[in-house]
Amino acid sequence: MHSRQGALGSPLEQPQRPSAKRTGTPYTLKQISKLKYGIKNYTIRARVTKKTSIDCRAFAVNLQDDSGDIRAFIYAEQVDEFFPILEVGNVYHISLVQIRRRNNQLELVFNDKTTVERYDELTDVSQGDFDFVPIALLTENKVNHEVNILCVVKDVIDASPITTGTGKDKRVRRSLLVIDSSGYEVRITLWGSMATDFKCPVGSIIAFKGAIIKDYGGRTLSASEYRPMVVNPDIPEAHTLCGRYDAESHHKKFMSFSRWVAHGRPAVGSAPKLVSIAKANSLVATVADNFEFFHIAAAVTAISSDPFTRPSCSGKDCGNN
């Protein structure tokens, strides 16, 4: 759950959908920032800013009011009832939702007592709020901290499936290289439907909310499937960034955090600096037990057929285990 700071432009208009078949006077109206674990019989008035597709009889929405935002999850029988009703951009009264705590954050879970009613008279509910962090300042925030960024897409890597966890679960991911006006670039990874449905071309302005800071060979970002991603937002910051990108992108060099190479091309950063093999040997000799990364360009003169591993012996006193 996150507090609101700043303002973001209106989402695209959504087609009209039927309201839920629930009626009645709402319970005590609560702001999202005032929700606490254990409270019951309450109503929130919130706008849907993000909605996932149905996966394994479940989907999720991001709900936002003027005080903050929270994720809500809908499972099993409630999917058939609420998936056609909850639409991005619309405002609803939502009552009798279970509050749970997971990973030190509050979440909502719909149940068979949950009621939803479309609310069309409101004009002051937040339409998506961001307090942007410059990419250059990502190192000043801790790993796994959530940040909001406003960026330009510099490069797009095709979506691809990966195996996670125990080796049985597969997820789809897509990496973007993005830049901003701070003069830095960073790789951000999209997951699931966000990765497969991504159609934005290079040069698009995107606002990410709740991107998670990671550190894989340098600072990277991971975009949450449950947080808003707004393309070409109609706000002054986006117009300014677009103007600077058009004027500077063709000749400006951007600083980077990472030295890793992914998907066959640099994931982040400018062209690598090459060193000679002699220089590489001297670097290895001087860093002792620490790691040192470098790039070399060399010709292969021979390939050995000898194995590069050896089996460990089974004796309990063997020193080769």
Helix segment tally: 4
Largest sheet: 9 strands, mixed
Structure class: mainly beta
Strand elements, count: 19
Helix and strand topology:
Layout: E1 2-3, E2 28-29, E3 42-51, E4 58-64, E5 68-75, H1 77-82, E6 91-95, E7 98-102, E8 105-109, E9 115-118, E10 146-156, E11 160-164, E12 169-179, E13 184-191, H2 192-196, E14 205-215, E15 219-222, E16 229-231, H3 236-248, E17 255-256, E18 261-262, E19 265-266, H4 277-287
How does this structure look, described?
This protein has helices spanning 77-82, 192-196, 236-248, 277-287; strands at 2-3, 28-29, 42-51, 58-64, 68-75, 91-95, 98-102, 105-109, 115-118, 146-156, 160-164, 169-179, 184-191, 205-215, 219-222, 229-231, 255-256, 261-262, 265-266. With 321 residues, the chain is mostly beta strands. It is globular.
Kindly list the characteristics that best describe this protein:
nine-stranded mixed sheet, five-stranded mixed beta barrel, single chain, disordered N terminus
Concise account of the structure shown:
By secondary structure, this protein is mainly beta.
